[in-house]
Amino acid sequence: MRHSLRPLLFFMMVTLHQGQGHEAKAASQDTALRVPRQAPDRQLPEVATMPKCRPIEAVELFLNSSETVEVTQDLGAYIFEGIIPEGFPNVIRAGVVIFPDIGYDARAYAPLAHRLTARGVEIRGGLLDHPVIVVLPPCTPCMATEDFDVEQLRPCQACTSLVLQLLGKFELEKWGLIGFGEGAKAASVFAETFYPRVKAISIVGGIPDATANLKDKNMLVQLLGGESDVVFPPDVIAAHLDKLPIEALVATLPNVTHDDFSWHEYPCDTSKNHTDEYAPNSRLKTRDPLVDVLILGNYTTSFYHNILAVETGGVDDMFLVEEPSRYDGFPHQLPKEVLRSDPEYDKETEPPRPSCILYCPEPKEWRAGLSATVFGLYYKEVTAEGLEWLDENSTLTQNDTVSARFDEENLWWVYEGATPYKAGMIMFVGRHVPPEAYAILLRQLARKGYFMVCPYAPILLSPLNAVETGNRVLEQLGHIVDDWFAIGHSAGGVGVGDFCEANTARNTVRSQPPYVRGGIIMAGVFGFSNFTLMAARGDTGAAQMEFMELVGTRDFSRYDEPDDPERCHARIEQSMRTRVPDGHLTEVYIDDGDHYQWGAYGYQFPFKTARIWQQEQIRAGVEAMDLWLMDIVAR
User: Fold this and answer.
1) Are residues 424 and 467 part of one domain?
2) What is the pLDDT at residue 426?
3) How far is residue 183 from each of residues 167, 189, 458, measured CA to CA in Å?
4) In a domain, 226, yes or no
5) Alpha-carbon distance 114 to 594, whole Å?
6) pLDDT single digits (tens) 512-544
7) Are 568 and 553 within 8 A, CB to CB?
8) Which of 495, 493, 411 lies closest to 453 in space, CA to CA?
9) Is 187 inside any structural domain?
């Protein structure tokens, strides 16, 4: 089996990107989609089904607007929309649709919807998470296999029409889905049908539909289950992983049951004829913190904000939180008077929060939740030209001595050229950029005589497993060439620092091949790696590590900021020179180069555009890297 259920590192993802809105409206009218549509002069049939359980009283708080979230109703659905603070124009909105478990009252998912929306307008380190719109329909959609007259639609098919009408009202091009329980099956079919409009899906306490194949989609996918779930236990989830993309996330939550994912009465007894709308609060001790776990991860985290700071901000925007902090917005947590109404709630027995939030020493481990995967993030699309650099029959690769192959077992690309090789290089990708987008760079480095390996990473965020993956490359391929270097673009620079920091012992006079000699960072900086400090503490390998910073002069700048030729120099001064011992950092600046032309994935918001062609930037970068690498290897 390709995947395994492993300890929880991070959770749900929904990925989104705002476009011009035309695709969003057109998709709901496209007859080629073969989904039920509402006739202009007819009413939709009843779409709600009889709820299995009433929502609990605590849900009512989350059905009302707050200072950060506006809650409205449209076509019977609840719409949660983040209120954008003043001073943040031109922000990208994200869109999320929740597919309730079949038969459950949709309001039972309001706590998650409200808090998710509030999280999207949080400001930390001067950075704003992209505001999110969450659509919570009163029903669970299903897809029709043939066209039906609207009067003949089953309720779940009519619910699909309702959801499409709602999506057509928002100027959003990309959406993400969260499917719960049996609703996850409908969500997976919906995601496959409306790809690429749907760019992400999280399956919570359920499994994808047997007919849905998301494996070949450029889509963020996650399965999240409860360790104590008897409806969809972990072994059942594990049996459905082969149809997921190779970068899918799979995790189980300890001591979580199927009923904990939604806030309804517990135990559920549908035989009772209740007259009141809400049930007494129950299992809040488990359900309340679980919402934070779903949104933020096992630990609250500033991970995503620091990754943004790596790309666009300064070191003042990067921070390590020593104490847990709840996200901004209302409600931060349930009022104590509500919690006290739960007879199970006991503050003294609530699990303690860890003091290590972002980057945990001994061993170091990233703990990333929704903030690393949801707001405004999506997998970049490889451009048509970028794909040609992988095609052996392309005019760009004809008469080429380099071959590119994908290792399906190890999930990495290998670029092999003429031997003997000058050195081996492990490429750590930028934030959510597919490895295929770097073929334009890696093939040209391979032409220069380098053995290139570019691994996949969980959710395509290479800092999450840079050390583990890099070491696996050395174990399996280290015999091919003696000298190895790490290379990373953007957020991949964090991976370069982590990998080299973990392998300083491979850079001493007593070490044996494969050696790790240093790294190249393109358009990025380290995370919290500090080789100067390690050298001062007596680490001779760290003292001898060599690094190159390769950056375009129009990088580290937003599109709406004035040109400042000194910005790049100041950023490197702040973020890199103090982290590398004197004389061991080489800086190369590509005139008029930008942030995203190191890969073939198109424009990347919010950066400035280059004033040179991509091939010119790549050529200059490859020449500079080749000269630097040959000098280091020759020493």
Assistant:
1) yes
2) 98
3) 18, 10, 25
4) no
5) 38
6) 999 999 999 999 888 778 999 999 999 999 999
7) yes
8) 411
9) no
Question: What is residue 182's DSSP assignment?
Answer: T
Distance of alpha carbon 194 from alpha carbon 517, whole angstroms: 47
**Contact between 558 and 608 (Cβ < 8 Å):** yes
Whether the Cβ atoms of residue 10 and residue 147 lie closer than 8 Å to each other = no
Q: Give the residue among 186, 201, 625 at the shortest CA–CA distance from 448.
A: 625
What is the longest distance spanned by two Cα atoms in the chain? 83
Phi/psi of residue 407, each to 5°? -90, 105
Tokens of 87: 């001073």
Range of the domain at 510: 389-634
Regarding whether 410 and 366 lie in a shared domain, the answer is: no
CA-CA-CA-CA torsion for 189, 250, 135, 115, nearest 10 degrees? Answer: 170
Is 0.70 surpassed by the pTM of this model? no
Amino acid at 342: D
Q: Note whether residue 327 is domain-resident.
A: yes
pLDDT in tens, 87-141: 776 666 778 899 999 888 999 999 999 988 887 776 554 555 567 789 999 988 8
Tokens standing for residue 336: 């104590």
Q: Which residues pair with 279 in a beta bridge?
A: 56
Are residues 356 and 437 located together in one domain of the fold? no
- What's the token pair of residue 611? 């004033």
Phi, psi of 491 (to 5 degrees): -60, -20
Q: Tell me which residue of 115, 94, 525, 526 sits closest to 300, measured CA to CA.
A: 115
Cα 279 to chain centroid distance, Å, stands at 36
> What proportion of the chain, given as a percentage, has pLDDT over 90?
40
Q: Are residues 350 and 427 in the same domain?
A: no
Orientation of helix 183-193 relative to helix 155-167, angle to 10°? 50
Q: What's the CA gap between 231 and 283, in Å, rounded?
A: 18
In 152-243, where do the E strands start and end? 175-180, 198-204, 220-226
Q: Which residues of 426-462 are buried (b: 16+ CB within 10 A; e: fewer)?
A: bbbbbbbbbbbbbbbbbbbbbbbbbbbbbbbbbbbbb
Q: pLDDT tens digits for 256-267?
A: 899 999 999 988
Given CA atoms 271, 272, 274, 280 in this order, what sign does their dihedral have?
A: negative
Residue 365 has which token pair? 């481990």
